[in-house]
Amino acid sequence: MSTNITESMNNALKGCKELPITGVIDYIRGVLQGWFYERRTSALKLTTQLTTAADVAIGVKDDQARYMRVYPITFYTFLVKDGDLDGHMDLTTKTCTCREFDVDQLPCAHALACIRLRGFSFPDYCSPYYTSAFLVATYSGEIHLVGQPSE
Predict the structure, then answer these.
(1) How far, in Å, CA of 13 to CA of 5, rounded?
(2) What is the C-alpha separation between 103 and 97, in angstroms, rounded?
(3) Which residue numbers delimit the SWIM-type domain (predicted)?
(4) pLDDT by residue for the chain (151 residues), tens digit each?
(5) Most distant CA pair in the chain: distance in Å?
(6) Cα 30 to the center of its chain, rounded Å
(7) Which of 29, 78, 124, 141 has the most CB atoms within 10 Å of its CB?
(8) Closest CA to 110 of 130, 90, 127
(9) CB proximity list for 138: less than 8 A, separation 6 or greater
């Protein structure tokens, strides 16, 4: 699948180019209905607190975090040394010198090293947008057939 939205939509809609506009709209409805159903079904099968993509990202960053040295400044602030970018990490404001935590709202490797040191739960420091519950809510909407033009 392409990451370019135009290419993706052109590919998805190539089967309706010769239809009248009402047929095109109905075709688009069918495509979206299928996408929502597939994604809703997948989301409902998740058994983890975070989405699959967030779990994978956390796993990769956690592997990096295991090699970092963490020096507490206060209970929630730390100096983290990773051999490249030594920086300041604040768990209360969810900010880090690397800015990854601030921007992505998903803990960076520095944050994960600090969270692990304190024994906190990783998902508690992730934006709600990365949770399985939010993903289920995203695809909870239903796409229904619109009545015939004569109705």
Answers:
(1) 12
(2) 11
(3) 76-119
(4) 556 788 877 787 887 778 888 888 888 888 889 989 999 999 999 999 999 999 999 999 999 999 999 999 999 999 999 888 888 999 999 999 999 999 999 999 999 999 999 999 999 999 999 999 999 999 998 887 776 666 5
(5) 72
(6) 25
(7) 78
(8) 90
(9) 39, 43
